[in-house]
Amino acid sequence: MIILDLELKDTPGELIKALTPISKMGINIHSVIHLREKKVDGRIPVRLVVGDLEDKILNEMINKLEKLDVTITKVNTSIRKRDIDLVVIGHVVDTDIRDTIDRLNKYGLVIDLDLSMPDPFKESSARMKIIVDSEKLNDLYNELDKLSKEKNLLFIKSF
Amino acid sequence: MKVILIGFGIIGKGVINVIRKKREYLKNKYGMDLKVVAICDRSGAAIDDNGLDLELALKVKEETGKISKYPEKGTSMPIVEVVKSIEADAIIEATPTNIESGEPAKTYIIEGFKSGKHVITANKGPLALYFNELLSYAKKHNRIFRYEASVGGAMPIINLAKETLAGNEIIKIKGILNGTTNYILTKMEREKLDFDTVLKEAQELGIAETNPHQDISGLDTAAKIVILANSIMNMEVTIKDVNIEGITKITPEALSMANKGGYTIKLIGEVSENKLEVGPKLIPLDDPLNVKGSLNVAMLNTDLAKEVIVVGRGAGDVETSSAILSDIINIYLKNK
Questions:
Q1: B268: annotated binding-site residue?
Q2: For the residues B24-40, what does the mean pLDDT come to?
Q3: The complex's ipTM?
Q4: Max CA-CA distance within chain A?
Q5: Per-residue model confidence (pLDDT) at position A112
């Protein structure tokens, strides 16, 4: 058996969208578990158990799911992708937010951004969600440290 | 059992009050006759080999501010001389923390060991700066060194990890180890108030000190992380090795942002093989580390027991004294 941990948007049709290509490949789905209690930031973790597969077919299935914008966080015990939530404090907009996002996107993908500017002359706050390949996590953290020093931004990370 | 108390401020008075309150309990439960044979403060000491009148000692301190004014038994003898010359089983070191030099507590602790006394301390400074040196004195003189009150106040963590979880490898420890910052962040989150306003209020309530630098800069948490790293995880680190970020930049808007994403912000200290860090972190709202007010919390990741979490009051005279009392009892039982 192979256990896959996915993350789906909490909108109707997302689960069918993920299961259809698997079914079309003739892969035996043993169980689908919604981990609704672990929902974070509008995304629901789903655990999928499928029959044993050759590596080639498993990779093909993963590619198909990722093309459909399904995030696969874990395959068996191997963590593939991590969600990093961040709150940023400082002059987030004035220090070129486009550049900040572009530099983070070199190592991961900023998929969510929320901005709060209570006063145009005071520091602002932003919330970001970044999906990053596990092996690029340290590179992302290094880039955050660089940005923090260069732009005097405080990045508050989730564990 | 005879003890010498060094330091007669908030914690010292708390210790004396707890000993007074628990005297009969200690006799009945452990057969322990606990005598405080000397109390020292900056003015000198009160010394009585038969045990001081603790109520009188508190009264003298309250009325004059000086223990050396204790009738007949008061003296201006320097603290180091008291430690060296007065016969006792243990010293309880409860002087104010000096995070830059660890003094004068470091000297009192070393002199305690040299004169054959066990040592109990609540003092972070010497532990964060000279842990291995102090431990070597304890070993050399075959004395017991206990310091449960130095981290997390009443929250049991050091003795929990070293004794109750004996046999487990402690892989990581993380948690909220400073009640003042937790109070400030909780209040900012609940009432949408800015940092300076809440800090001022916390100072008026006596929750934050007049000079809150050590708390809000993360230094206090860093000192505690160093103590945990050295004493529980057998590391050899000092406060200079800790990556520190405080909470002064946190805004109510940032807390609201965190809340919208299902998180809160807490000042977290963390120690593992590759990490020695203090800084604000996003903690899921339903996480056990999300404790409110001035509570402390610590999560220990272990190889056998997995995650173990303790929550408790991290400050307060009676609460801290309860940790000191547990150390006194432990020493008594080991030498019975």
A1: no
A2: 97
A3: 0.82
A4: 59
A5: 87
**Mutate: best of B251, B265, B277, partner A, most A CBs <10 A:** B251
Q: What is the pLDDT of residues B114-163, one digit of tens each?
A: 999 999 999 999 999 999 999 999 999 999 999 999 998 889 999 999 99
- Does the pLDDT of residue A79 top 80, yes or no? no
Q: For the purposes of burial, counting CB atoms within 10 Å of the CB of B201, is it exposed (0-12), middle (13-18) or buried (19 or more)?
A: middle
Task: Break chain B into its structural domains and give their ranges.
Answer: 2-154+317-335, 162-313
Question: B284 vs chain A: nearest CA distance in angstroms?
Answer: 8
Q: Distance between CA B322 and CA B309 in Å, rounded?
A: 19
A82-157 CATH pick, 3.40.50.700, 3.30.70.2690, 3.40.190.10, 1.10.10.410: 3.30.70.2690
The residue of chain B nearest to residue A152, with distances taken between CA atoms, is B249
Q: Choosing from B22, B73, B106, B224, which is the catalytic residue?
A: B224
Which residues numbered 241-260 in B keep a CB inside 8 Å of some CB on A? 245, 249-251, 253-254, 256-258, 260
- Give B271's strand partners: B173, B276
Q: How many CA atoms lie within 13 A of B256 on its CB side?
A: 14
Query: The domain B162-313: what is its CATH number?
Result: 3.30.360.10
Q: For B2-154+317-335, which CATH superfamily applies?
A: NAD(P)-binding Rossmann-like Domain (3.40.50.720)
Nearest CA in chain A to B243: A145
On whether the CB atoms of residues B157 and B189 are closer than 8 A, the answer is no
Distance CA B216, CA B301 (A): 26
